């Protein structure tokens, strides 16, 4: 019986998910930024694999670049709300194309002047409407970006994004 118990305990230990590979669990928090020209959005904090990361999302209806959408990194820098987190952000890599639901645009990684963490700016558009997300967290920017995009791709968030862009 002792041998069986030890063997099952060893098997359970080997099958356990290491902390670095735990799933990300996002919970909603209050919108932390003062009012500006756009409606407040939604904010989330991550527990689990991206512990401590925060994600801020909102729709910006009536985006002015209706024909091209989010076409370049300069546009992501201007519209993705990274400046709400820190005015001293510096891009650390060229952006890349991303899609969320039916929207297409770009994501870009940043270093924040006030912390040792990373930030991600995401801007995607549909016709003349824009959806932006800014995420910040400690550690690797790629990990924060993957966790944020995976969360934004959940059915609940895709439905909210489309409703927000439709003015509901």
TrEMBL record:
It comes from the Bacteria. This is Uncharacterized protein. It comes from Bradyrhizobium stylosanthis. The lineage of its organism: Bacteria, Pseudomonadati, Pseudomonadota, Alphaproteobacteria, Hyphomicrobiales.
């Amino acid at each position: 019986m002792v041998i069986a118990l030890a063997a099952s305990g060893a098997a359970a230990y080997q099958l356990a998910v290491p902390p670095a590979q735990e799933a990300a669990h996002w919970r909603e928090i209050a919108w932390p930024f003062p009012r500006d020209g756009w409606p407040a959005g939604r904010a989330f904090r991550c527990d689990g694999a991206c512990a401590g990361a925060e994600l801020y999302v909102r729709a910006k209806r009536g985006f002015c670049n209706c024909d091209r959408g989010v076409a370049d990194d300069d546009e992501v820098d201007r519209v993705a709300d990274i400046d709400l987190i820190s005015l001293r952000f510096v891009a650390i890599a060229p952006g890349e194309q991303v899609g969320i639901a039916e929207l297409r645009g770009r994501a870009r990684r940043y270093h924040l002047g006030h912390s040792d963490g990373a930030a991600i700016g995401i801007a995607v558009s549909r016709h003349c409407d824009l959806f932006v997300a800014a995420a910040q967290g400690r550690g690797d920017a790629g990990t924060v970006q993957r966790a944020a995009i995976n969360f934004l791709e959940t059915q609940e968030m895709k439905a909210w994004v489309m409703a927000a862009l439709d003015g509901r």
